Amino acid sequence: MFQDKKLVCFDLDGTLIDSVGIWNQVDAALIDELSNRKVDLHEIQQQRDLQLTALRHRPDPYLEYCGFLKEQYDFEPVKEEVKNRRYTISRHFLDHIVELKPQADLLIQALKQQQISLALTTTTSLFNVQRYQDNNRNINSKISFEDDFALILTRENVQNIKPHPEVYLNVLQAFNLRPEECLIIEDSLVGVEAANHAGIEVVAIYDQHSAHEIDLIKAKANYYVEDFAELLSFVP
């Protein structure tokens, strides 16, 4: 799996950190605040996944997603204000609730010891990454995004979000590597598809919030593991 690899790329949400469910809670709180409606968390995730996939070619898919929420739940504020409120709500979760996936830090250190370069390749915002780095002791006590990753690419670095392969094509260009010299670790179907479109081998790692797509994920990934402990066993 890791043999002859010069670079390993890590997705962030749902892969390195246990955060997908947090965004369900953030959106639930947003909907409750602006429309006084209680919405099922599973329903929230499904509609967010569908909307972000459909809106992936827009300049700001997350702004348009907030516009969708405004129309869907009859919010009074304009979509720009909805987006601002969404991120205000998220700060408590980002700073105190989100945790690193078990043994993710051990894999990072093991790969660095093998002289394999690491990249963080996420279509979340730089704002979120910086909050994890600066404020979240659950995360920054175990890893350092700045020190452990040779390159960090976020939403601001791409025009197209996953499943478009842009973020991974940018990584190959930045490191001047061939696809076969790189390995990607993802948890979601859109992430696995982005790796497929870039022609790069991908390991899918289980996340409970992607379980509804597990059969497709397994079919499209080159490798599948249940957790980082299993993935660690493949490091030379």
From TrEMBL:
Pfam families: HAD_2 (PF13419). It comes from the Bacteria. Signal peptide: none annotated. PANTHER family: 2-DEOXYGLUCOSE-6-PHOSPHATE PHOSPHATASE 2 (PTHR18901), PSEUDOURIDINE-5'-PHOSPHATASE (PTHR18901:SF38). This is HAD hydrolase, family IA.
